[in-house]
Amino acid sequence: MFRHHIVFQMNNKDRFQVTPDDPHSVVSNVDLYDILGLLNFGIQNTVDAVKELALSPSEIAFDLLLLGTAVMGVDTRISRAKNAQDGWTREIFLYFPVSDPGLWQAQAGALSGMLHFLTGDRWCFQFRPRPKAKQIIVPVSDKFNLAPRDCVSLLSGGLDSCIGAIDLLTSGREPIFVSHYSDGTTSTYQRIVLDALKQKYGKSSFDSLRGNIGFPRNILHNGGDEGTQRSRSFLFFSLAAYVADGSSGDTMIYLPENGLISLNVPLDSLRLGALSTRTAHPYYVARWNELLGAIGLSGRLLNPYATQTKGQMIRDCKDLHYLKELLPQTMSCSSPAKARWDKHAPRHCGYCMPCLIRRASTLFGLDDDGDTTEYGVELKGQVLNSKKAEGAHVRAAKSTIAKLQANPKYARLAIFKSGPLTDVGDQLEDYVAVYQNGMNEIAELLKTTNSRPL
After folding, report:
1. Among 177, 188, 130, which Cα is nearest to 152's?
2. Residue 76 sits in which domain range?
3. Are 263 and 418 within 8 A, CB to CB?
4. Per the domain annotation, does 47 fall within a domain?
5. What NCBIfam families does its record include (predicted)?
6. Do 359 and 349 touch, CB atoms closer than 8 A?
7. Residue 450, beta-bridge partner list
8. Residue 129: enclosing H or E segment and its boundaries?
9. 224-254, pLDDT tens digit by residue?
10. In terms of Cα–Cα distance, which of 377, 394, 389, 406 is closest to 443?
């Protein structure tokens, strides 16, 4: 295993170096600019697109965008199998040029803590001044904003963000939708949803920005590839904060995610690290808002559906008829590309936890035949092989459901398994309820489905 030290540079005159006194450390230098003087890794296209929206974020917001790029970049290019003593926890040191080193260094501990919570790794940050030639990087837009927007909303191409978009637009809000993609499947679904929203509500009803940001393979010495992408939300939120900071006033950044997924209580002890993401967990969102306040950015994250199940989100959607029409064009599956092994185009597998929650939610919020999405496996009346992934997920879900039915008080303990809930205030009972109600939706979906070794 290796401890990775990554030095980010802004030009060839940046001579900053590190020489760790550790035989298990490896150093990589990553230039944030290409030989033409343009920002690498898709950042330049994003900055130009924000300028086209007549937005002018601050240099601090740009620091955050670069930091988000760096975090996700190294996360996806350092293999856990090669670089973690326990097969999971990596040690990552980032050396980063910023516009205000003192401000950022004061947040180094907070950044390390929130990323440890998100990815399970140990992160260390050292900030230094940008080169003199890079003190001002954010371009000032020469366009006048004739249609100022009143909020930012994350749009992933999934069902929850689609509901969030419909609710905002139906309510007369004028959002900027922010998306991030690093693969063709995600990009395709985002475009489908955005095109459908334009056709329904009109091109002038919202703006959108889609960032294709990421590191190429083999950019880090002895890194490898890592497919878990636990830090994706750090980049996603950084991108949204960059856009929000360029807007007028204190812009709200909406994070549409159902409460069951936000809590993401592990179905068993094996899922606590490797299979439980914390993208929208209340603790993580609260730390983000603390960070944004500490560095002086105007945006704030809010999940308006934090205490609703996905089924309740569907039921309460402000345009249910339109949602039902758009639903099969959204993507919720955790890994749709695996359908290629069955010689299918990317589609919902039908058995991963996001797929089970989606199917349960449509059963609750619509009706038995309200979801026309194509799924890879049938569930109703089936006995699935628990030795395979489809059966293992169902078995884990049914085991948790049985535990809850036998002891309803278990819910009060379970919701703390994926992280602290010290920031929810007097809403704790609502979080207990969203977990119970969400699992009840899955129980209804799986009442005629069983799993055993076959």
Report:
1. 177
2. 3-39+59-133
3. yes
4. no
5. QatC
6. no
7. 383
8. strand 122-129
9. 999 888 899 999 999 999 999 998 778 999 9
10. 394
